[in-house]
Amino acid sequence: VLDKLKAERERGITIDIALWKFETAKYYVTIIDAPVHRDFIKNMITGTSQADCAVLIVAAGTGEFEAGISKNGQTREHALLAFTLGVKQLIVGVNKMDSTEPPYSESRFEEIKKEGSSYIKKIGYNPAAVAFVPISGWHG
């Protein structure tokens, strides 16, 4: 939705940060869509450095979460960068829950939540204050 560049739409990845602003009765909100691809990490840092809260999206698919949370994984790197850049509020969206076996597997979600909580605690977040939310980009 926020990817405006033709290259972003063609490749299916975010390349540059995009902003979307709205307000509620109490707050002015700016959503910053930042790239996660390793080639565009400078743009991710630019977007994250402006944030008060981050939504870290992790994939629930077999092997995908494990790759992201591995020693050199993107999930680890992005969570660490967010904390280092001063983002103290974190939400973790566990995406692709429709592709788990069985679909929307509670045990897979709990496994990811447990391992994710362990890592974010190591870098400085309080896991009790971090919401882990099961989601699906295709089926809600």
Automatic annotation (TrEMBL):
One of its GO terms (molecular function) is translation elongation factor activity. It comes from the Eukaryota. Residues 1-140 form the Tr-type G domain. SUPFAM superfamilies: P-loop containing nucleoside triphosphate hydrolases. Signal peptide: none annotated. Pfam families: GTP_EFTU. The keyword Phosphoprotein applies. The keyword Phosphoprotein applies. Keywords: Elongation factor, GTP-binding, Nucleotide-binding, Phosphoprotein, Protein biosynthesis. This is Elongation factor-1 alpha. It comes from Notiospathius sp. form 60 AZR-2013. The gene is EF-1alpha.
